[in-house]
Amino acid sequence: MQTYLVGGAVRDALLGRAVKDRDWVVVGATPDEMLAKGFRQVGADFPVFLHPETQEEYALARTERKKGHGYHGFEVHSAPDVTLEDDLRRRDLTINAMAQAEDGTIIDPFGGQHDLERKLLRHVSPAFSEDPLRILRVARFAARLEPLGFRVAPETNELMREMVRSGEVEHLVPERIWQETQRALHEHRPDVYFRVMQDCDALSRLIPPLANALTSNANPAPLRALMLAVQLSSHTAVRYAALLGGLDTPLAVEDLSQSLRAPNDCQAMAILVATSADDLLGPATEDPDLLLAVLDRCDAWRRPERFDDLLIAIGALGQATLRELDSHSIKQALEAARAVDPQALMAEGHTGKALGEAIRRTRHQRIATVLKQNKTGNHHD
């Protein structure tokens, strides 16, 4: 029974990057032996165990055989006679198919160290093509490692193109697409994630309007907006909305978000950007009626923090399309309107429907005052 550190921890250590998660492979053991040592089994489909003290994952060496389409179409074989090399061969990229023995020796049967030096993302074997999720994983690694100069190997890109042509991408599980996309949005260069998918023709299957934008422009506004949003916010919803919100109509953005299985907060933010960006980047700061309507539409009264995030996303889209967002005036107007006190209006005798109308009228007056002051240059911070 031998234990090896594998995958990302070995890769990141060789790159001089911080190692966050450590995964282990155990060769020559059975599930019963692992349980006898106090490990707790967590893998339903194949034997993965948590270490009794560190809680790190220890997987028994395994092989996989394709038996159907998509991520779940695999038959897993795990037994004491499965070698370390057998286990490493089923991995996606050579830089992820290295192991480290307990004495520190690097086991590298597929040239991962050489590809680290050449800064190449290269597939381990033709079996790569059996799992369409690997296209997204390669794109995500490209987004992470692009600042170090990494690129997808030409032969791997060609294999990914063939996977798209064969229709294998159609079997991607939507939840997994979102999982990889969300992770990519938090990498150093999330735009590279979408560019790599465009290069292998996968993007047209997953986000058609973004693929169209990239076809006509090497650096389209949605990707510029995304990269500006990355500098301004760490929130997934803001980054996602900056990317998608300017791509299409609100209804199309909603349909696309649902097909991507984006969570509700991301969907809502992207739809709000699609619905309100043109107003807030255009006439709303000169039109109290329009600004009040936008604030109502965005529920800025009850969700001011979300509205702040919305302004960041729209501001990024504005910069990308050479339109300036007067967020100062918008925030001032909202603050003044939110300060309207229903209790004071009730004390004046307003009740029921009349109270609602009085609140709205007073909010409108305050918005109009702020916009007028700012227009004439008399605004105060």
TrEMBL record:
It catalyses: a tRNA with a 3' CCA end + 2 CTP + ATP = a tRNA with a 3' CCACCA end + 3 diphosphate; a tRNA precursor + 2 CTP + ATP = a tRNA with a 3' CCA end + 3 diphosphate. CDD domains: NT_ClassII-CCAase. It is an enzyme of class 2 (transferase). Catalyzes the addition and repair of the essential 3'-terminal CCA sequence in tRNAs without using a nucleic acid template. Adds these three nucleotides in the order of C, C, and A to the tRNA nucleotide-73, using CTP and ATP as substrates and producing inorganic pyrophosphate. tRNA 3'-terminal CCA addition is required both for tRNA processing and repair. Also involved in tRNA surveillance by mediating tandem CCA addition to generate a CCACCA at the 3' terminus of unstable tRNAs. While stable tRNAs receive only 3'-terminal CCA, unstable tRNAs are marked with CCACCA and rapidly degraded. HAMAP family: CCA_bact_type2. A single active site specifically recognizes both ATP and CTP and is responsible for their addition. This is CCA-adding enzyme. It comes from Marinobacter nanhaiticus D15-8W.
